[in-house]
Amino acid sequence: MMNKIRILMLEDSPEDAELVRNELEKTNVDFDIELTDNMYDFSKALDEFKPQIILSDYLIPNFSGLAGLEIAREKLPDVPYIFVSGHIGEDRAIEALRKGATDYVLKDRMTKLVPIIMRVLKDVGELNSRKLAEESLRQYEESYGVLFENNLAGIFNSTLEGKVFRCNHACVEILGYDSTEDLLSVPLPELYYNKQAGDVFISSVIENKTVKDIEVQLTKKNGDKIWALANIGVVHDSASDQMCIQGIIFDITERKIALEEIIKAKEKAEEADRMKSDFLAHVSHEIRTPLNVILSYHNMLRDELSSDIKEENDYMFNAIELAGRRLVRTIDLILNMSVIENGKMDLMLMKTNLYNVLKNMHEELYKFAEAKGLKLNLINKVAEPIVTTDLYIIEQVFQNLIENAVKYTNRGEIDVTIYRNISEEVCVDIKDAGIGITPEYITKIFQPFSQEETGYTRKYEGLGLGLALVKKYLDILGYKITVVSQKGKGSIFTVRFNNSK
Q1: HSE toward the beta carbon, residue 414, CA cutoff 13 A
Q2: Please, what are the domains in the chain?
Q3: Full pLDDT tens readout for the chain, 501 residues
Q4: Which residues pair with residue 236 across a beta bridge?
Q5: 416: exposed, middle or buried (C-beta count within 10 Å: 0-12, 13-18, 19+)?
């Protein structure tokens, strides 16, 4: 619904005012008219009524239409002022228009009034829209100018031929020039480290209209090469009303240098890892070969001389076997940890019956426990403890956990229990009655080369890699391990297979 058009009339004749009103009522437009006949009321209405159009007689007692025009132009310069008079001649009309009147209508030609009003209002609307657009543009350009000059990124504009005609302070600083004028004198292609590549790049921008996040090599004024991240496109420049190239550049030279150093360091680290792996493999071969010979001949000699070995000398053969196995285990731990850290562990996942795995291990380690006077129990509370796992890894995990339980337990029993927890996940507890772990050390128990007792006076041998390897293996498979322990009472290690529901 259209709002009422506010019309202020400066007219001393009620009859003439009624003629104007009657003429306006012939239209479908809703008007709100306020009538004044003196300077005071007219001036007050300008302030309070805020008319959208003013209709004025030329001759007013003790006042005049021209005086009203002067006041209106001071207070409301953009409001149309139309003279409606029977006493205005051509000369007076020209004078009024020269002083700022919008138009005039003779009272004996009242039919022209409404069309003139409608035309004037349309012109005013278009003028206001244009002024609003111009003000919005001015504010935008003012804001853009602030952003342009204060931006940390280098911003520039050039013609499609490559002549730079605008750049901000950051662009001048990035390229090492003394001033904006100094930089504007350089053609855009010559700012590239490779001028031929610069020509090709600019042609590509013009063809594709925009190029985003591309790394380019530019040349500073002193000849130094820099790396820049560029976003460049073809845009319309409102100032010149021409298409131009606009670019935004960020100096990424330090980032590129840092990245190159990281890559070199990574390559160096990878080479060191490769050399370490080669060294460990070589050392393993050099140790395993003679060690296998020693252990093989040890077994042969023991079998050959079994009837002649005195009972008191049998411990020597046991010592050789235990020392050899300890050395093999140490080599295995170091090599396995190296494989994991180098990310070279290839998984072979398959459905595995956990009871069968632990049963075979129980038979193998039972004598090891019995030799210390311990009892190793395997308890299965799950009908089909099937898990998806890597067989080699899971054997390594439980071998380390059970051997640790035997090593740190001096009397009593060790229980290996398979069961389901309240979440229906298959779990394995390794419970011992050993020396236990202090609360202070339990947070470090899975760290490589970590042992609660250190130095040459420690009671238990080992590198401190076993539990660290167990944790890394289980992390690779996505399984969980927890430990509950009390110093002097024993420990319970729990492995939870969270893919076994």
Answers
A1: 30
A2: 5-130 (3.40.50.2300), 151-251 (3.30.450.20), 257-339 (1.10.287), 345-497 (3.30.565.10)
A3: 457 888 899 988 888 888 888 888 877 778 888 999 999 999 999 999 989 889 988 888 888 889 988 999 899 888 889 888 877 777 888 888 888 888 888 877 877 888 888 887 777 777 777 777 666 556 555 555 556 677 778 888 888 888 888 888 888 888 989 888 888 888 888 888 877 777 777 788 888 788 888 888 898 888 889 898 888 888 888 777 788 888 888 888 888 888 888 999 888 887 877 777 677 667 666 777 777 777 777 777 767 776 666 665 666 766 777 677 667 666 666 666 666 666 666 778 899 999 999 998 888 888 888 888 899 999 999 988 999 998 888 988 998 899 889 888 988 999 999 999 998 999 999 999 988 888 888 888 887 766 655 434 445 555 567 788 888 888 888 899 999 998 888 999 999 997 655
A4: 243
A5: buried
Q: How far apart are the first and last CA of the chain?
A: 69
Neighbouring CB atoms inside 10 A of 394's CB total 23
> Which residue type sits at 274?
R
Give me the residue label for tokens 């322990």.
485
Cα angle for residues 197, 203, 204 (degrees, 5° grid): 85
45 phi, psi to nearest 5 deg: -65, -35
**Can you name the residues that pair with 234 across neighbouring β-strands?**
245
| Nearest CA among 432, 431, 427 for reference residue 354 | 427
**Tokens standing for 72?**
């209106």
